[in-house]
């Protein structure tokens, strides 16, 4: 097993990785910017290295500084967390060239899944259902209009380099096509430096359901069921739950087996998430994430599996001891992302947290790196922490969430806690009857 892991991240995920490493007997190295000298991830780690000034480009995204930190500290592996360099194939390549393990998939799998056109073709060959659409990139308007007519309007123009909804435009009819195509291309060129786009049938009111998979380098692949992440605002997840309120056990088994078989065929290693849109009982692949995700704890809560531990074991080339038959889904879990933002306007609210008191008791988990007196710097994302609930049933989870939100005290900055209390009163939330546009519609109607 690794002796020393450098954690190339900050905030709650850096703590999550540190905890898994320590339980495996692995020592940890924190890296931090000058804005994070007093951060909890630095205090907790066995060693720390300052790698640059506050802007992410000069610190948490600065590959030469991070490689230097590995060499100075003698780390034999890097855990990238999520965000920053977690899905940067070049970073994985560079680490490998320096004889440092990247705790994640092979660089080529990161590269494949980063190109949405190639990713879709590869998973389709491996048996995963995809959204009907163009066979590859669309190069000109006339070709696009022919393919769009074939697919049937409305169609969605998507960036091959996409993600986060950038470079994505709906064409409701052929009259809209030219403008949607040109706008998507321009946005994609600006955001990603690549103007390749492709077409898909536009699904109007789907849910976002993703399958968590875990694979080792010995052909063992398991899935941990799904997470329903339909409640999003501007492509940021706000509330996630597992299991999905709408899937049957048979649907879960069926899509889970399709995903594990595909991942085995692709020769993928580590944790991964296969994201689907789900509408009228059908799954349609949209993308695969090759990192540990923010919302991974809800899968841990319903399976009892420590995903970070398994990811590190698989990353070290060891065999997973888990078998699919050992994985039983038990109860219901909900995660609320608590951000330092105004609960109605979502304006970021960095600054000092004067008082921080977390809820506790049975079935309540808080993954956070803040403490009373901590000052949230303005340079990074606004996540204060994640409130994760587990209970035997969904109804009990909703009640437990309500009481945990009431216990939570965060003073000094605005937080999104009041939003969750409001959501708990909504009949559609109580019944699980929501889709990917529900939250934005709700917020627009307030
Ligand atoms: C779609 C779609 C409808 N139809 N694809 C948004 C980001 C990117 N990862 C995929 N996205 C979508 N792809 C087809 N064919 C609607 C979205 C979408 C969305 C997806 C998941 C969660 C929230 C969303 C919000 C708006 C649009």
Present the secondary structure layout.
Elements: E1 4-7, H1 11-23, E2 27-33, H2 40-44, E3 47-52, H3 63-73, E4 77-79, H4 89-97, E5 101-102, H5 107-114, H6 116-125, H7 141-151, E6 155-159, E7 168-171, H8 174-192, E8 197-201, E9 207-215, E10 221-233, E11 236-242, H9 249-266, E12 270-279, E13 282-289, H10 296-303, H11 307-315, E14 332-339, E15 351-352, E16 355-357, E17 364-368, E18 375-376, E19 383-391, H12 394-407, E20 409-411, H13 417-423, H14 427-431, H15 438-444
Parallel strand pairs: 1-2, 1-4, 2-3, 4-5
Antiparallel strand pairs: 6-7, 6-8, 9-10, 9-12, 10-11, 11-14, 12-13, 14-19, 15-18, 16-20, 17-19
This protein binds ligand MV4.
Give a list of the ligands: ligand MV4
Indicate the proportion of strand residues. Answer: 25-35%
The biggest sheet, with number of strands, parallel, antiparallel or mixed sense and barrel status, is: 8 strands, antiparallel
| Rg estimate, integer Å | 22 Å
- Number of structural domains: 3
Shape: globular
Name the structural class: alpha+beta
Number of strands: 20
Our count of helices gives 15
CATH superfamily of the largest domain: ATP-grasp fold, B domain
Helicity level? 25-40%
Low-confidence stretches: none
User: What is the CATH C level class of the largest domain, in words?
Assistant: Alpha Beta
Give the CATH architecture of the largest domain.
2-Layer Sandwich
Strand order of the largest sheet: 13-12-9-10-11-14-19-17
Distance between the termini: 53 Å
- Mean pLDDT figure: 97
- Tell me the CATH topology of the largest domain: D-amino Acid Aminotransferase, Chain A, domain 1
């Amino acid at each position: 097993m690794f002796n020393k892991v450098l954690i190339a991240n900050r905030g709650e995920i850096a703590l999550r990785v540190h905890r898994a490493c320590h339980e495996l007997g692995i020592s940890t190295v924190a890296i931090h910017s000058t804005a994070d000298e007093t951060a909890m991830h630095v205090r907790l780690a066995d060693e720390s290295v300052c790698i640059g000034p506050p802007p992410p480009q000069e610190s948490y995204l600065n590959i030469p500084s991070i490689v230097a930190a590995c060499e100075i500290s003698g780390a034999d592996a890097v855990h990238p967390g999520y965000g920053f360099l977690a899905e940067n194939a070049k970073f994985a390549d560079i680490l490998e060239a320096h004889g440092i393990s990247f705790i994640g998939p092979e660089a080529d799998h990161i590269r494949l899944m980063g190109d949405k056109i190639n990713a879709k073709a590869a998973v389709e060959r491996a048996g995963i259902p995809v959204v009907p659409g163009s066979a590859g990139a669309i190069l000109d308007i006339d070709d696009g209009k022919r393919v769009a007519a074939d697919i049937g309007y409305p169609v969605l123009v998507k960036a091959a380099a996409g993600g986060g909804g950038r470079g994505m435009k709906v064409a409701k009819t052929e009259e809209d096509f030219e403008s949607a195509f040109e706008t998507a291309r321009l946005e994609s060129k600006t955001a990603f430096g690549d103007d390749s786009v492709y077409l898909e049938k536009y699904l109007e009111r789907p849910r976002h359901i993703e399958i968590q998979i875990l694979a080792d380098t010995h052909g063992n692949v398991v899935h941990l069921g799904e997470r329903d992440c339909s409640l999003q605002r501007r492509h940021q997840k706000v509330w996630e739950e597992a299991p999905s309120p709408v899937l049957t056990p048979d649907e879960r088994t069926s899509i889970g087996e399709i995903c594990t078989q595909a991942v085995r065929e692709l020769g993928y290693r580590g944790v991964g998430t296969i994201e689907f849109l789900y509408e009228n009982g059908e799954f349609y692949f949209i993308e695969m994430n090759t990192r540990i995700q923010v919302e991974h704890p809800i899968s841990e809560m319903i399976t009892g599996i420590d995903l970070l531990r398994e990811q590190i074991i698989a990353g070290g080339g060891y065999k997973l001891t888990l078998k699919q038959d050992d994985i039983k889904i038990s109860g219901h879990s909900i995660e609320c992302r608590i951000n330092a933002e105004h609960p109605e306007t979502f304006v970021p609210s960095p600054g000092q947290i004067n008082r921080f008191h977390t809820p506790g008791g049975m079935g309540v988990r808080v993954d956070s790196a803040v403490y009373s007196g901590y000052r949230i710097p303005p340079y990074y994302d606004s996540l204060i922490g994640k409130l994760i609930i587990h209970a035997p049933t969904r109804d009990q989870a909703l009640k437990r969430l309500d009481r945990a939100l009431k216990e939570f005290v965060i003073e000094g900055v605005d937080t999104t806690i009041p939003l969750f209390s409001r959501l708990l009163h909504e009949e559609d939330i109580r019944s699980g009857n929501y889709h990917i546009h529900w939250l934005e519609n709700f917020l627009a109607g307030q």
